[in-house]
Every structure is written in C-alpha cells, then in structure tokens.
Amino acid sequence: MHGHRGARLPGGRERRDHQRRGGRRRPPGREPVAGHRRDVAVRAGRAERGTGGRGHRRRRRTQRRRIPDGRHHPDRHRGARMTTPLMTVHSRSTHRPLPRPLTVQGVAGPPELLEISDEAGLLATLTVGARTVAMRGPVRTFTENKRPFHDTFDRTRAAGWGPSGGGGSWSNANGVDADYTVTDGAGIISMTAANSSRHATVINNISDVDARLSWSLTVMPTGNASSLALSFAYTNVNSMYRARLSVLTSGTVQLILERESGGSTTTIGALTTVGTGYTAGDIWHIRVQRKGTTLRCRAWKDGTSEPATWVHEVTDATLGAGRIGVRGLASSGSTAVPFQFRVHDIQLYSGTWPDPPVITHDTWIRLLDEPYDGQWTPALAAQVRAWAYDTTPDALAYAMMYVTGAPPVTDPSLAGAQIAGQSRYGPLDSAGAPVEGADFHDYIGVDWEFVNGETRPADAPELHCMDCSGYVRMVYGYHMGIPMVRLENFDGINLPRITKDIGPSGPGVIVAQADDTAPPLGGLQIGDVPLFDADSDDAVSGQLDHNGIYMGVDQNGHLRFANSRKTPNGPTLADVGGASRLDGSGTYATTLRLIRRF
C-alpha cells in the first residue's frame, strides 16, 4: 500500500497497492508496450512543460439534467466533506504541488492503461475508454459491523419466521416448521409436548450483544412451569447462554441465567423472583448484555419501567460467538400443552461480529469529465496533480455512506431531504421480505428527470431504500456525476437503471467477462463494478441480476465488494446472506460473470 516501499519495477519505479486487487505483479499479457511508452512519454513531457503537442482539446461537457424544480445538480455535493465512522483516514496531506515531473507508462490491454508515477511511485492509473481514475492518496480503512434490528413480526408466515428485517433470517430447531409461525404481530412458538424445547435464532454469529425481547403465554402453566428465554452465543440446541424467564403454576415469575454446553446446563445466575400474579396474556420483557466476558440480564413486566440495575451480572468466558434467539420450554410434567408462546418483538440494540471485514489501502477513485481517450495532456496532468492531495469524498467514501451505521446527511437545497445515511434495500412485503425496485431518487424522495427525457416519480414506501443498481447509481451517478437513464438510450456513456443493461451497455469498458463461469480477476481494479448471475429463479437463464462496487482486499486476503441486497436489507460489504467476496466458493464468487470499469 502507498506510504510503504513496494516491489521494484523496471526503470526504478515501485509497484504500489492501489490500482490492482492486491498489490500483485502485472498478469501475463499486460506488460508495458515499449513503443507506446515512448510515444506517451513524449506527450507527457510536453504536457508537463506546457510547450508543443496538442495542448488541451476542447472537451464535451457531460450532459446533466436537473430535477423538475431545478434545485439539484449532480455535482452539488462532490466537494462536500462528508464523513462516516465506518471510514477512517489515517493521515491527511496538506495541499501542495508535486515537486517533480510526472512520468507515464502505457500498459497493453484490454483494457489499455496509462500509469502515472511521481517520485514516490505509482500515483494514478487511467483506463482508455473509462472515466474512473485510481489515485494514490491517504491510507483509509473501511469496515462494517452487525446491523441493529427491531423485529416486530409485521408479516404473515405459515412455516418459519422468515426474514428479521435487517438482522438476517430466522432459523428454527426442534419440532417442525409449522410450530414456528407469524401472525397478528407476533412470532408464535407452538408447544405440543411436555419436556420439550423449541429454538428460533437469527442466522448470524455475534460476540458482544445488547438485546431485548417481549413475550407472553396464551394459557397459564399447569402441572409444571412454562418458560421462555432470550438466548445468545447460540451455536446449537446444546450450546448457548440464555436468560430464562420461568412462569410457575402459582403465577410467580422467576429469572435465571444459564449456560448450556456439551449437553449439560449450568446455572450462572440463580433463580430470582421478579414478579407475581402472572395471568395469561401478560407481556414480559427480557434484556441481556454481553461485553467481553461480562454477562448481564434483567426482566420486567410490560407497562412498568425497565429497571436501572441488573438482576444477574456474572463473568463467564466459556462460550464464543453465536446467534441470538428465543428458546421456549414446556417443562417435564406440564399439563398445559398444547399451548403457545407469543414473541411480540425482539430488538438488537447492538452486536459485534467476531471478525468484521476490514479493508485498508490508499486508493481513491476519481472521475474524469469524459472517458480517457489515450491522450496525455497538460489538463490531465494538472488534474492528476490536484487529485493527489484531494481528500473530498470519492466513489469509495460515497459507497460507505449507506452501509450499517452511516449517519444521515441532509441537503437544505432539497428542503432538508436525506441524501446519505444507512439505507435499506426496500419496503417489506406481506411475508417480511424486502421488495426490489428502489432507485437512488426513491431513497432521497424526489421525482427525477433523466438526461434522455425519461421521468420517474419517487415511490414513497421506498424512501431511504436502494436495490443493488440503485445503490451503484447513487454512488456513481448522483454523487460522482455519470449521466443516468432508465430503460432507453444505452450508449456506453449513460448509466442504465437495470443490472442486465449495465453489464453489456453501461458506461466505460469491460475489464473481464465469461458466460458460464467466473472470469479471470487479473485486471480487477478497486472501484470496478462486478456483475453477477446470482438468482437461479430468473426467468431468463444467464441474465445478469446483481452488481456492486469492488472495495479492495480485506484483512484476511479476500476481495470484498459493497452491494445492496435483501437479506441484510441494504448496502453491505459483509457476509449476511452470502459472502460479499469475489474470491472463494461462495454465491457471488461463483456467479460473477462480468467486470465493468465506469
């Protein structure tokens, strides 16, 4: 990465990790072309001296169209200093001119590249036919963590609880799927036999956790107690921590903190009475916290204030990361069966993944006014010099402004509309699944007129939502300034609405593609747009149906891309609902079909 010495290249230059996927050697077939290098070097010398050559050709300005009320221009926020806690800039250089001439070198394609170097090594990479430029800049770190969620069960499911609306998907163990249903604003667990348990957990392991659930019984326990627990660190039905609220036949309510491991249960917080006089339908809350090896829990009746103190606070380091969820128990000797537990809501206030994705490099992705035509001019030299010390948001910074935890950013010129901040994928259908269809302007909540005259009103239910291509269009279209269309006028300059059109007809150049397998990744560059045939249910076989933005190599050597999708309910570079990786054997690594550089 930049700021450290890299591999020595011919001519005394150093390879730096900013335009290739992992600081690798140039792949076969992409060696510098001697004749082209000499020709470009001559033009570069002229550009640096400002004498001779063609000079700066008159450029065609990118066509942009304002929305009907004329308040917004796509470049309005390109100079704004937006920040996010999910992106750390390790150092900021002061703005100053680069002291020595730039040197340039052509690289054979496809696609054909021009590499610009300064005294510190590789500074910028331009691609013939593309507008994006990979620049060296201050080192940054990008990361993401578990998205908090609040599942209010506002859906109908006949078998299994389905998606959790941002937290992943529910999975059940013990009994049959029909024992886990959702109706009338509650997740139902049906108990059909004494001395039996039911488990519903959210598929996603977390370590530290702060969570709460509310629940009630449909009938009073008889014969023996009925109890429901908020479980955490769950890995299987025989391994978890749980804060269990037990309702006795007398109506007494007791809280116990337990650890189950290796098939045996250990009490780590003794049975403590927290209420009396329970009647069927009474709602109780359980809250747990885990921070490192400290475990806490408390419980209270609905309609009363949450206690300020914990009933149990213990230290235990036995279990590692695991899921959160619900465990229902009909005790041995219970004569109340069949009965139901009603889970009214479950809320994850915060959660920490044991190994969140962390990407650190010094690449910044900037955008030329028009595609690079292979000519190195004084104007381009001046632009590259200016970008070398520019720390205003680039494409990667904008991409991070919509993932979990990104703070809201509003635009006074749009009547205070939110233009950045944590996004969802789409509104939920009756079964609780996010619906595809939200474009960038739906997120903002403004009607839009596109450069070709197409118009589209904002869909109110899609406010603060973006599907996969809507997310890419928000970053590269709305913020970076690539002109956008919807369903017409695909000319290799405009950015289409739908993934299947972005692949073959989008702006820029195709870096790699294949029909029935993943293409080679040798030419992959940070900022590229990977496109996938990931949905096996598509009516048209082989049709591209998903896309994202390649962000770089993570701490484990994996190639991470940011993308908006249904299971995490919004933009992510993490692995909820599938690994956001271009390497390995996961869904997206194996269904990658095309890489485009805008």
Specify the number of helices: 7
Largest sheet: 8 strands, antiparallel
Distance between the termini: 23 Å
**CATH superfamily of the domain at 149-351, called what?**
Exo-inulinase, domain 1
Description:
- The chain is mainly beta.
- Among the domains are: 7-143 and 361-392, no CATH class; 149-351, Jelly Rolls (Sandwich).
- The strands form eight sheets. Strands 8, 10, 11, 13, 18, 19, 20 and 22 form an eight-stranded antiparallel sheet that branches. A seven-stranded antiparallel sheet has the order 9-12-21-14-15-16-17, with no helix packed on it. Strands 3, 4, 5, 6, 7 and 23 form a six-stranded antiparallel sheet that branches.
- A hairpin with a 4-residue loop joins strand 6 and strand 7.
- Helix 1 crosses helix 2.
Topology:
Blueprint: E1 7-8, E2 14-15, H1 34-49, E3 87-89, E4 103-107, E5 113-118, E6 121-127, E7 132-143, E8 149-151, E9 170-173, E10 180-183, E11 186-191, E12 196-202, E13 209-217, E14 226-236, E15 239-247, E16 253-261, E17 264-275, E18 284-291, E19 294-301, E20 312-315, E21 323-330, E22 339-351, E23 358-367, H2 378-387, H3 395-400, E24 409-411, E25 417-420, H4 440-444, E26 448-449, E27 455-456, H5 468-479, H6 499-505, E28 509-513, E29 529-532, E30 546-547, E31 549-553, E32 559-565, E33 570-572, H7 587-591, E34 592-597
Antiparallel strand pairs: 1-2, 3-7, 4-5, 5-6, 6-7, 7-23, 8-22, 9-12, 10-11, 11-22, 12-21, 13-18, 13-22, 14-15, 14-21, 15-16, 16-17, 18-19, 19-20, 24-25, 26-27, 28-34, 29-30, 29-34, 31-32, 32-33
